[in-house]
């Protein structure tokens, strides 16, 4: 019921925003600002990537330090927060790099810029996939599954205690609700943009609709079959 209420409020809010902007002529072309966007987003992605890599090295160095008692507890708390920060920064870096590469390809920039954007995507993507391996470095005494394991999620939950499972599931539930609201908001914004700029975004709206159907169906089937 709460999820539906949030969903409804978001839809109504977006509806009024749409009508508020219907009278405006949005004629900003992505091609006009593509080059600047590429450098801005690419630079942000690179900075975040460096921060993620530095954070990984800090975790690895800290984990190898022999500590006992309160110092070890403090290190565990620091590692936990640092690992989450590194994961977040790494994922955002990868997203920005993909957006950068997409703009480069769509706007048909020079080959050198395309290669640089592709390299950035590969490195940031690799860093995002490497970060889960840090958990084995942080907790060598725990029987954590390999990331490549097809049952990684189940085994990770099985190796976690009750408190850790509660935190993970709570985070995933809030993320699921937020994803629904944000994707509906994106559909509304794309509709406004399509009407105002006369540049059809129907394909993007259709894809977002499919994503919404998929994630909601997957979620319901997952909890229904338990």
Structural class of the helices, strands and pairings?
mainly alpha
Q: What's the tally of helices?
A: 8
Helix content: over 70%
Order of helices and strands: HHHHHHHH
Kindly state the number of beta strands.
0
Which band does the percent of strand residues land in?
Answer: under 5%
Largest sheet: none
- Give the mean pLDDT: 79
Q: Give the low-confidence spans.
A: 22-27
Distance between the termini: 21 Å
The outline comes out as globular
User: If you compute it from the alpha carbons, what radius of gyration comes out, rounded to the nearest whole angstrom?
Assistant: 22 Å
Structure at a glance:
The protein is mostly helical.
Report on the architecture of this protein.
With 226 residues, this protein is mainly alpha-helical. It has a domain at 24-148. It is 81% helix and 0% strand. It contains eight helices and no strands. Helix 1 (2-21) packs parallel to helix 7 (162-197) and helix 7 (162-197) runs antiparallel to helix 8 (202-224). The longest helix has 37 residues, at 70-106. It starts with a helix and ends with a helix. Residues 22-27 have low confidence and may be disordered. Pfam families: DUF3169. This is DUF3169 family protein. Keywords: Membrane, Transmembrane, Transmembrane helix.
Q: What topology does this entry show?
A:
Layout: H1 2-21, H2 30-63, H3 70-106, H4 111-130, H5 134-138, H6 152-159, H7 162-197, H8 202-224
Helix pairs in contact: 1-7, 2-3, 2-4, 3-4, 7-8
């Amino acid at each position: 019921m709460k999820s539906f209420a949030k969903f409804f409020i978001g839809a109504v809010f977006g509806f009024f925003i749409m009508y508020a902007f219907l009278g405006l002529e949005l004629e900003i072309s992505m091609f006009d600002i593509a080059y600047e966007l590429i450098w801005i987003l690419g630079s942000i992605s690179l900075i975040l990537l460096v921060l993620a890599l530095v954070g990984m090295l800090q975790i690895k160095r800290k984990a190898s330090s022999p500590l006992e008692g309160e110092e070890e507890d403090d290190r565990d708390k620091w590692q936990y927060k640092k690992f989450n920060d590194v994961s977040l920064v790494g994922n955002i870096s990868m997203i920005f790099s993909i957006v950068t590469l997409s703009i480069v390809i769509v706007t048909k920039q020079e080959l050198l810029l395309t290669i640089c954007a592709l390299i950035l995507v590969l490195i940031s993507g690799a860093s995002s996939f490497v970060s889960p391996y840090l958990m084995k470095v942080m907790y060598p005494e725990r029987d954590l599954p390999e990331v490549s394991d097809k049952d990684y999620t189940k085994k990770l939950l099985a190796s976690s205690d009750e408190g850790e499972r509660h935190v993970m599931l709570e985070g995933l539930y809030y993320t699921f609700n937020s994803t629904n609201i944000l994707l509906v908001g994106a559909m509304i914004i794309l509709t406004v943009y399509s009407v105002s700029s006369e540049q059809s975004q129907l394909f993007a709206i259709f894809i977002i609709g499919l994503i919404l159907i998929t994630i909601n169906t997957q979620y319901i089937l997952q909890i229904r079959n338990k």
